[in-house]
UniProtKB/TrEMBL annotation:
Protein name: MMS19 nucleotide excision repair protein
Subcellular location per the Swiss-Prot or TrEMBL entry: Nucleus
Domain MMS19 N-terminal, first and last residues per copy: 46-314
Span of domain MMS19 C-terminal: 652-1091
Gene from which the chain derives: MMS19
PANTHER family (UniProt xref): DNA REPAIR/TRANSCRIPTION PROTEIN MET18/MMS19, MMS19 NUCLEOTIDE EXCISION REPAIR PROTEIN HOMOLOG
Organism of origin: Carica papaya (Papaya)
An annotated GO cellular component: nucleus
């Protein structure tokens, strides 16, 4: 009883039109859930709803029938027996005559007819009755949009799911559909109507059948929509686009050949339209109709279609040839959509009926163009209009060839031999496997136009073969006409292209070189299975291009073209897996360019490296060979510098290392099983450093060592953990052989700072220590570093002597260490907490002048730890700076992993900033610069904390990175920095605090800054004002100003800026005159322009101040600043005309 009452309440809630849509939907879901869970049967539900379904109250009856229809839509997967289905569909079929309850009847019919077979479907007889009722009772165009859409969906469902049931309705069905769709304007409904026509064409597919008599009527209805002109009110959400409508109409047009007499004339007429969209749509529709109507029906329109295609391409094809090396990839034509669609239509026509080519070949205009453009010898002689015509003909012939083997034969028969005659090439001296005499056959400059067309024909025929796996694998075209012609002229073409590359152009025309290289590249990339180009010819092509790379290096364009051609040929070999060609390429090209890099000839070394690195990108095997070969060259150059003291090789060594880090090693990222190569490469470098570097040679080239470290890091980072362990063991063995005594690097004795400075180390030791640090920076957390505690002490000693890589290595070690000791991890003999204790609790002895470790510690040395050393201003002014930099990198490693020790380290740096200012006031003026240096370094430590380093502690080098670590640090530091700035009394401390704050802000993710803009702006403005007083802060000032600019151009930031408009403008106006950096002045003015867009009432009172301030910038020595000043003055002057409500 309770359930019945509850059901009645749900029914009445839905029936009541005054209820909200949310309440109605909830009631509908509740009833559907009861039926779905079998708490309520469908029969019981219908019985309970009988009154609502049959009442004479039109509103209640309409809502009741709609409720039943919606319930069935929700229960589409619930199985129903055939009797229930028959009863329900019979009810809704009758209700189609009840126009007041039509929506519910349509929804119910659709719900029942869309059911799947496993849930129960209506019978063909029932479907036929639905269709009859539909045709007899519905006047679709008199209904509202939603009901019309339901009507079309029902009709679509009948045609898709029950075609056999409704086909018997014959004329009545077709007439009813025409009546229903005629005059439809709604986009959603139109998509359905177009699809209905397509389905109707499939139902009555017989060209002589029933639909033929209605074809004209249906076309009259459809044709008024072409081309689609689709607009809708701005801001209105529409889920149908113009492309959706156009595609649906196109499919309706092409749905049956019966429409051909009507559709194609219309499309040809619209193709002549001046409206670009009409041209594009006409071409698209013609392409689709061509494929679907069939060759016989389209053939009668060939002449008219060709005439319009030709005119369209000639009118809109305005591109000319590009000689850039990148265009050798075949993308030199920049075509608009009209030309693209015209060529697509041409391809469809030729592919369907190769005889269409005869129209092109016989065309008088094409032949006139052909004759005129081949009358010019060089590219420079050809007028611009004729250049465009040249490429128009080239594209037409190219597309025709790519359509089919048959069309390729026709074009080659008519055009290829003609081009060979123009070029003066005779087949008499050529053979399949032998090359003619290259020194005597070509004696004059080749016709550029003929050469260009010839290359297009070659490229198109090659692409035709490459586009079909069957043709490539079976070589079924070997006896085709085009293949025979090409084989007979292939050797002579190689000779002609070679001559074009080598010819000296007196008028500076680069076209010959470009075409020569492109021609050789095309011939070199024909599939090997087609046997068009023998291996002898292929090797000849490689040698010609390689000779340009190795000898003609003064010809920049020719050199780049030849190199690009070689790279493209190598890439083609990789894609086609041609082993014979691959062997030739390896022996002729790869090995030659590797040997070239070791020769001391006249070829500039950067060009050698460019050649070898680019060649490596063409294939995995080539790159592996190059890495090995260049590794040997690298070791040889290291020996030249550090064994024989050859200073001239330093620049070459730097270039070689940069090539490795920027080109060669990144090119191996996706190469599988490269570990062996990397391990051997690293081992070779370590062997070189260990055995072949003279300790007496004192060459400290920081750039060389920095680049060598980067190469080592990239190699180690790319290895697996096992391979990293092998490299670490090798590096540790070499480290043990250095003059640095690892036995002294233990935790049971203090560190005595009496050893040699970094600059006094031997080159060998400097390399060993730096490269070992590089290895440590790059290994993954799972790798194993031996003797970790000694390593920590060693790096700590080096850190104190100013060795930055040691500091970075310490930061990396602490970042990747495990919290507790566990076998197999990076620090199996030392946990993170132990490492932190070692670093911060190690005792340091700082000896005075003329003292040594043997002297009594109480009288001749100061004893302190790292923290104390940061605050001390000892005789060695560099020592505190070294400590702070080292702690910054250590802190960065801890910060990134979220370690609590970072709080203590942060306070150390802040204490330096605060106490340094006080101590500075007590020191003589001659020693105050020591305090300044220490404080500046402490402020810059926050930049190290927050920056994304490319050197170490990044994802590439396997750093442990806690999500949102920057955001957390920013949130922690912001209130602290605000408090310290207020408390700071020293004129030296405050700017340094602002500098530290600026580093934190500029490296925090922008979204965090924008979310905190209200609390940041005041301190940012104070920072800008304070930092502008010292030229040494100019870079930090500019970075902070960029953040302010980002705030002013963001909607969220503008809200905060509006509240502080006055003080922001005061600050920016002052920066307009900043003398030390043009970028600051320019950005400040740009910020003022952004401020002009703030609410009128906030900025108008400041208008005069801004305009007067900007006047100064109108005389700025930098033009770009003056331009921004003019723009700013105009923007602020226009605020006078803005409304108070804007």
């Amino acid at each position: 009883m309770a359930e019945t009452i509850q059901l009645t309440q749900h029914i009445e809630a839905f029936i009541d039109a005054s209820r909200s849509t949310t309440q109605q939907a909830a009631s509908l879901d509740a009833i559907a859930s009861l039926v779905r869970k079998d708490v309520l049967t469908l029969e019981t539900l219908v019985t309970e709803m009988e009154m609502y379904l049959t009442t004479t109250d039109n509103v209640i009856r309409a809502r009741g029938i709609l409720l039943l229809g919606e319930l069935l839509r929700h229960l589409v997967s619930k199985p129903l027996d055939s009797a229930t289905m028959h009863s329900l569909i019979g009810f809704f079929t009758e209700r189609l005559a009840d126009w007041r309850a039509l929506r519910g009847a349509l929804v119910g019919c659709l719900a029942l007819m869309r059911r799947k077979n496993d849930a129960g479907m209506i019978t063909i007889t029932d479907a036929k009755e639905v269709a009859k009722s539909y045709l007899q009772n519905l006047q679709v165009q008199s209904l509202g949009q939603h009901d019309r859409k339901l009507c079309f969906e029902l009709l679509e469902c009948l045609l898709e799911c029950y075609p056999d049931a409704i086909a018997a309705l014959g004329d009545d069905l077709i007439y009813g559909i025409c009546e229903a769709i005629d005059g439809e304007k709604d986009p959603q409904c139109l998509v359905l109507t177009f699809h209905i026509v397509e389905l109707l064409a499939k139902l009555f597919s017989d060209p002589c059948g029933l639909l033929a008599g209605f074809a004209g009527d249906i076309f009259d209805i459809l044709s008024c929509y072409f081309p689609i002109h689709f607009t809708h009110p701005k801001g209105q959400e529409v889920d149908v686009t113009r492309n959706d409508l156009s595609r649906a109409l196109m499919q309706a047009f092409s749905s049956t050949p019966i429409f051909e007499p009507f559709v194609i004339p219309l499309l040809l007429e619209k193709l002549s339209s001046s409206l670009p969209v009409a041209k594009v749509d006409s071409l698209k529709y013609l392409s689709d109709c061509t494929l679907k109507y069939g060759a016989e029906r389209v053939a009668k329109h060939h002449v008219a279609i060709w005439s319009l295609i030709k005119d369209t391409i000639c009118t809109f094809h305005t591109s000319v040839l590009s000689f850039a090396p990148e265009s050798l990839n075949g993308v030199e034509f920049q075509e608009n959509e009209i030309v693209t669609e015209s060529l697509r239509l041409l391809h469809a026509l030729v592919m369907q009926n190769p005889s269409f080519v005869s129209l092109i070949i016989a065309d008088e205009d094409i032949n006139t163009i052909f004759s005129s453009i081949t009358s010019y010898q060089s590219y420079g002689e050809i007028p611009l209009q004729n250049k465009q015509k040249l490429h128009t003909v080239a594209r037409i012939l190219s597309v025709s060839i790519k359509a089919s083997i048959a069309s390729c034969n026709l074009v080659y028969q008519s055009s290829f031999t003609r081009l060979m005659d123009i070029l003066g090439l005779s087949v008499r001296s050529s053979s399949d496997d032998c090359l003619p005499n290259y020194n005597c056959t070509i004696s004059r400059r080749l016709n550029h136009g003929a050469l260009c067309l010839c290359i297009e024909l070659l490229a198109a025929s090659r692409d035709l073969i490459l586009g079909s796996e069957e043709l490539v694998s079976k070589s079924v075209y070997g006896d085709e006409i085009w293949c025979s012609l090409l084989k007979s002229f292939s050797a002579l073409l190689i000779e002609a292209f070679t001559f074009s590359i080598m010819v000296t152009n007196e008028d500076g025309d680069d076209g010959d070189k470009y075409l020569g290289v492109k021609g050789l590249q095309i011939l070199g990339t024909f599939p090997g299975g087609c046997l068009l180009i023998s291996n002898i010819m292929f090797e000849r092509i490689l040698m010609v291009l390689l000779s340009v790379v190795t000898e003609n290096y003064n010809d920049e364009l020719g050199w780049k073209l030849a190199l690009k051609g070689l790279v493209n040929i190598g890439s083609s070999i990789r894609r086609s897996h041609e082993s014979e060609k691959a062997q030739s390429y390896m022996s002729i090209v790869v090995e030659k360019v590797i040997s070239l890099s070791s020769l001391t000839d006249d070829v500039p070394f950067p060009l050698k490296l460019e050649a070898v690195s680019d060649i490596g990108t063409s294939g995995v095997d080539y790159m592996l060979k190059i890495v090995k070969g260049l590794g040997e060259v690298l070791c040889a150059k290291i020996s030249e510098v550090y064994v024989y003291g050859n200073l001239r090789s330093i620049e070459i060594l730097v270039q070689l290392l940069k090539c490795f880090s920027s080109k060669v090693l990144p090119g191996m990222d996706n190469i599988i099983d490269s570990d062996d190569i990397f391990v051997q490469f690293a081992a070779n470098i370590w062997n070189q450093v260990e055995s072949c570097m003279d300790p007496k040679i004192q060459i400290h080239e920081e750039e060389v060592l920095d680049e060598a470290m980067m190469v080592m890091k990239l190699v180690v980072a790319a290895c697996s953990v096992d391979s990293q362990n092998i490299i670490i063991q090798k590096a540790y063995a070499v480290l043990s052989s250095s003059t640095f005594d690892l036995k002294k690097s233990t935790t049971n004795m203090p560190i005595c700072l009496d050893g040699p400075k970094i600059n006094n180390m031997s080159s060998r030791d400097d390399w060993i220590l730096s490269l070992f640090a590089a290895v440590v920076m790059a290994v993954s957390p799972q790798a194993h570093i031996p003797n970790v505690k000694s390593m920590l002490h060693m790096f700590l000693i080096l850190l104190l002597k100013g060795h930055i890589p040691a500091a970075q290595a310490l930061g990396s070690m602490l970042n990747k260490m495990i919290l507790h000791t566990n076998t197999g991890d990076i620090s199996s003999d030392c946990s993170l907490e132990e490492a932190v204790n070692i670093i911060f609790n190690t005792t340091l002895w700082i000896f005075h002048d003329n003292s040594s470790p043997s002297t009594s510690r109480g009288t001749d040395a100061n004893e302190m730890d790292l923290t104390t050393l940061c605050y001390s201003f000892i005789k060695d002014r560099c020592l505190p700076v070294h400590v702070i930099i080292g702690l910054a990198w250590i802190g960065k490693g801890l910060l990134m992993r979220g370690h609590e020790k970072i709080k203590d380290m942060t306070m150390i740096f802040l204490e330096c900033l605060l106490s340094g200012g006080e101590k500075s006031a007590l020191l003589p003026s001659s020693e105050q610069d020591v305090c300044y240096s220490v404080m500046k370094t402490a402020a810059d430590a926050f930049q190290i904390f927050m920056c994304d380093s490319e050197i170490c502690l990044n994802q590439k080098f396997h750093a442990v990175i806690r999500p949102l670590y920057k955001q957390r640090f920013f949130s922690t530091m912001l209130p602290i920095m605000k408090s310290l700035v207020v408390k700071a009394n020293s004129s030296l401390s405050r700017p340094m605090l602002y500098r530290a704050f600026a580093h934190i802000v500029t490296d925090t993710p922008l979204v965090v800054i924008l979310n905190n803009a209200r609390g940041l702006i005041q301190m940012m403005l104070d920072s800008l004002s304070n930092l502008s007083n010292d030229i040494l802060h100019k870079d930090v000032l500019y970075s902070l100003l960029l953040i302010l600019s980002a705030i002013l151009t963001d909607k969220m930031g503008q809200e905060a800026a509006t509240e502080n408009a006055h003080i922001i403008i005061n600050c920016l106006v002052a920066l307009i005159s900043y003398p030390h950096m043009m970028l600051v002045r320019e950005t400040a003015i740009q910020c003022l322009v952004a401020m002009s867009g703030l609410p009128y009432t906030r900025i108008f009172p400041l208008r005069t101040q801004v305009i007067q301030g900007v006047v100064k910038a109108l005389d700025d020595p930098k033009r770009i600043v003056r331009q921004e000043a003019v723009r700013c003055r105009q923007a602020w002057a226009s605020t006078a005309s803005r409304s108070l409500h804007s």
